[in-house]
Design goal:
- This protein has 189 residues and is mainly α.
- It is 39% helix and 0% strand.
- It contains 7 helices and no strands.
- The protein has helices at residues 2-19, 83-92, 105-115, 117-120, 129-132, 149-158, 172-188.
- Helix 2 packs antiparallel against helix 6 and helix 3 (105-115) packs across helix 7.
- 15% of the residues are buried.
Length: 189
Protein backbone atom coordinates (compact mmCIF):
# COMPACT_ATOMS: atom_id res chain seq x y z
CA UNK A 1 0.00 0.00 0.00
CA UNK A 2 2.84 2.32 0.82
CA UNK A 3 4.48 1.71 -2.58
CA UNK A 4 1.22 2.55 -4.42
CA UNK A 5 0.99 5.72 -2.37
CA UNK A 6 4.59 6.65 -3.21
CA UNK A 7 4.08 5.97 -6.91
CA UNK A 8 0.88 7.99 -7.03
CA UNK A 9 2.53 10.83 -5.11
CA UNK A 10 5.47 10.93 -7.57
CA UNK A 11 3.10 10.83 -10.58
CA UNK A 12 0.99 13.63 -9.11
CA UNK A 13 4.11 15.71 -8.48
CA UNK A 14 5.40 15.18 -12.04
CA UNK A 15 2.00 15.95 -13.50
CA UNK A 16 1.61 19.14 -11.47
CA UNK A 17 5.10 20.39 -12.41
CA UNK A 18 4.72 19.63 -16.10
CA UNK A 19 1.30 21.26 -16.26
CA UNK A 20 2.81 24.61 -15.23
CA UNK A 21 5.17 24.75 -18.23
CA UNK A 22 4.07 27.20 -20.90
CA UNK A 23 6.04 26.83 -24.12
CA UNK A 24 4.60 30.09 -25.47
CA UNK A 25 6.27 32.26 -22.84
CA UNK A 26 10.05 32.68 -22.64
CA UNK A 27 12.17 31.36 -19.84
CA UNK A 28 13.66 33.63 -17.27
CA UNK A 29 16.99 35.25 -18.12
CA UNK A 30 19.65 35.99 -15.59
CA UNK A 31 21.06 39.47 -16.31
CA UNK A 32 19.33 39.96 -19.69
CA UNK A 33 21.38 43.06 -20.51
CA UNK A 34 24.30 40.73 -21.26
CA UNK A 35 22.30 39.09 -24.05
CA UNK A 36 20.31 42.05 -25.33
CA UNK A 37 22.61 45.05 -25.65
CA UNK A 38 21.39 48.57 -26.13
CA UNK A 39 21.42 49.21 -29.87
CA UNK A 40 22.36 52.56 -31.33
CA UNK A 41 21.43 53.77 -34.77
CA UNK A 42 24.58 54.53 -36.72
CA UNK A 43 24.39 58.31 -37.04
CA UNK A 44 21.81 59.06 -34.36
CA UNK A 45 22.21 61.46 -31.48
CA UNK A 46 23.87 59.76 -28.53
CA UNK A 47 25.62 60.46 -25.26
CA UNK A 48 27.80 57.35 -25.68
CA UNK A 49 30.97 59.37 -26.24
CA UNK A 50 30.24 62.17 -23.80
CA UNK A 51 32.28 61.96 -20.64
CA UNK A 52 34.24 64.23 -18.34
CA UNK A 53 37.47 63.76 -20.34
CA UNK A 54 36.15 63.47 -23.90
CA UNK A 55 33.18 65.31 -25.34
CA UNK A 56 31.70 64.23 -28.64
CA UNK A 57 32.08 67.13 -31.02
CA UNK A 58 28.95 66.48 -33.03
CA UNK A 59 26.91 64.35 -30.62
CA UNK A 60 26.73 61.49 -33.13
CA UNK A 61 27.21 57.82 -32.34
CA UNK A 62 29.35 57.05 -35.43
CA UNK A 63 32.60 58.99 -35.09
CA UNK A 64 35.51 59.59 -37.45
CA UNK A 65 38.88 58.24 -36.29
CA UNK A 66 41.26 60.75 -34.74
CA UNK A 67 43.57 62.61 -37.11
CA UNK A 68 46.81 60.75 -37.84
CA UNK A 69 45.57 57.27 -36.95
CA UNK A 70 46.20 54.35 -39.26
CA UNK A 71 44.65 50.92 -39.55
CA UNK A 72 46.29 48.17 -37.50
CA UNK A 73 48.84 46.29 -39.60
CA UNK A 74 48.90 49.00 -42.28
CA UNK A 75 52.25 50.53 -43.18
CA UNK A 76 51.97 53.84 -45.02
CA UNK A 77 53.42 54.03 -48.52
CA UNK A 78 55.05 57.40 -49.01
CA UNK A 79 54.94 57.54 -52.81
CA UNK A 80 51.94 58.96 -54.67
CA UNK A 81 50.20 57.60 -57.75
CA UNK A 82 51.99 59.83 -60.24
CA UNK A 83 54.45 59.22 -63.09
CA UNK A 84 57.04 61.28 -61.19
CA UNK A 85 56.70 59.01 -58.15
CA UNK A 86 57.13 55.94 -60.35
CA UNK A 87 60.40 57.40 -61.68
CA UNK A 88 61.47 58.30 -58.13
CA UNK A 89 60.74 54.76 -56.91
CA UNK A 90 62.81 53.31 -59.77
CA UNK A 91 65.68 55.69 -58.97
CA UNK A 92 65.49 54.97 -55.23
CA UNK A 93 65.84 51.23 -55.98
CA UNK A 94 63.62 50.28 -53.04
CA UNK A 95 64.28 46.85 -51.58
CA UNK A 96 61.78 44.46 -50.08
CA UNK A 97 61.49 44.52 -46.28
CA UNK A 98 61.16 40.71 -46.44
CA UNK A 99 64.42 38.87 -45.82
CA UNK A 100 65.31 37.17 -49.14
CA UNK A 101 66.44 34.02 -47.34
CA UNK A 102 63.05 33.73 -45.61
CA UNK A 103 60.89 34.68 -48.61
CA UNK A 104 58.40 31.95 -49.46
CA UNK A 105 58.94 31.71 -53.21
CA UNK A 106 56.38 28.91 -53.52
CA UNK A 107 53.69 31.25 -52.20
CA UNK A 108 55.04 34.05 -54.38
CA UNK A 109 54.73 31.81 -57.44
CA UNK A 110 51.15 30.89 -56.51
CA UNK A 111 50.21 34.56 -56.09
CA UNK A 112 51.87 35.46 -59.40
CA UNK A 113 50.03 32.67 -61.21
CA UNK A 114 46.70 33.72 -59.69
CA UNK A 115 46.92 37.47 -60.28
CA UNK A 116 49.61 38.17 -62.90
CA UNK A 117 50.11 35.19 -65.21
CA UNK A 118 46.77 35.66 -66.98
CA UNK A 119 48.34 38.66 -68.76
CA UNK A 120 52.11 38.41 -68.18
CA UNK A 121 52.39 34.63 -68.71
CA UNK A 122 53.82 32.05 -66.30
CA UNK A 123 57.35 32.82 -67.53
CA UNK A 124 56.91 36.62 -67.43
CA UNK A 125 57.30 36.83 -71.19
CA UNK A 126 54.14 38.89 -71.74
CA UNK A 127 52.29 36.00 -73.38
CA UNK A 128 49.54 35.19 -70.92
CA UNK A 129 46.21 33.67 -71.87
CA UNK A 130 44.48 37.02 -72.39
CA UNK A 131 47.30 38.22 -74.64
CA UNK A 132 47.36 35.06 -76.78
CA UNK A 133 43.58 35.33 -77.20
CA UNK A 134 43.93 38.94 -78.35
CA UNK A 135 42.01 40.46 -75.40
CA UNK A 136 44.95 42.67 -74.38
CA UNK A 137 47.87 43.76 -76.50
CA UNK A 138 51.19 45.29 -75.58
CA UNK A 139 51.79 43.43 -72.31
CA UNK A 140 55.57 43.69 -71.87
CA UNK A 141 58.04 40.92 -71.26
CA UNK A 142 60.00 41.47 -68.07
CA UNK A 143 63.21 40.96 -70.09
CA UNK A 144 62.41 44.13 -72.08
CA UNK A 145 61.84 46.37 -69.04
CA UNK A 146 64.19 48.13 -66.66
CA UNK A 147 62.53 47.26 -63.38
CA UNK A 148 63.45 46.65 -59.75
CA UNK A 149 61.56 45.37 -56.72
CA UNK A 150 60.46 48.87 -55.73
CA UNK A 151 59.06 49.74 -59.16
CA UNK A 152 57.20 46.41 -59.34
CA UNK A 153 55.71 46.99 -55.89
CA UNK A 154 54.69 50.51 -56.95
CA UNK A 155 52.94 49.19 -60.09
CA UNK A 156 51.15 46.50 -58.05
CA UNK A 157 50.04 49.22 -55.60
CA UNK A 158 48.73 51.70 -58.17
CA UNK A 159 48.67 49.99 -61.57
CA UNK A 160 50.23 51.26 -64.78
CA UNK A 161 48.77 51.84 -68.25
CA UNK A 162 46.07 49.16 -68.79
CA UNK A 163 46.94 47.31 -65.59
CA UNK A 164 44.85 48.22 -62.58
CA UNK A 165 45.87 48.27 -58.95
CA UNK A 166 46.12 44.99 -57.04
CA UNK A 167 46.42 46.65 -53.62
CA UNK A 168 42.99 45.32 -52.62
CA UNK A 169 43.81 41.75 -53.62
CA UNK A 170 47.33 41.52 -52.19
CA UNK A 171 48.48 42.77 -48.80
CA UNK A 172 51.81 44.54 -48.45
CA UNK A 173 53.88 41.40 -47.77
CA UNK A 174 52.26 39.58 -50.68
CA UNK A 175 53.03 42.48 -53.01
CA UNK A 176 56.69 42.33 -52.03
CA UNK A 177 56.68 38.54 -52.52
CA UNK A 178 55.27 38.95 -56.02
CA UNK A 179 57.89 41.64 -56.75
CA UNK A 180 60.66 39.25 -55.69
CA UNK A 181 59.19 36.52 -57.88
CA UNK A 182 59.01 38.88 -60.88
CA UNK A 183 62.69 39.70 -60.40
CA UNK A 184 63.42 35.96 -60.33
CA UNK A 185 61.50 35.53 -63.61
CA UNK A 186 63.34 38.49 -65.13
CA UNK A 187 66.68 36.89 -64.30
CA UNK A 188 65.58 33.63 -65.98
CA UNK A 189 64.46 35.28 -69.26
Amino acid sequence: MKSIFKISFVLALILSLSSCKDSNSPNYQYMPNMYESVAYETYSESNAFNSINAKSENGKEGQLPPVGTIKRGYVPYEYANTPESYVAVKAANLKSPIDPTKADMKKAQELFEIYCAICHGNAGDGKGKLVTQGKFLGVPSYADRIINEGSINHVINFGLNSMGSYANQLNQDERWLVAAYVMKLKSEL
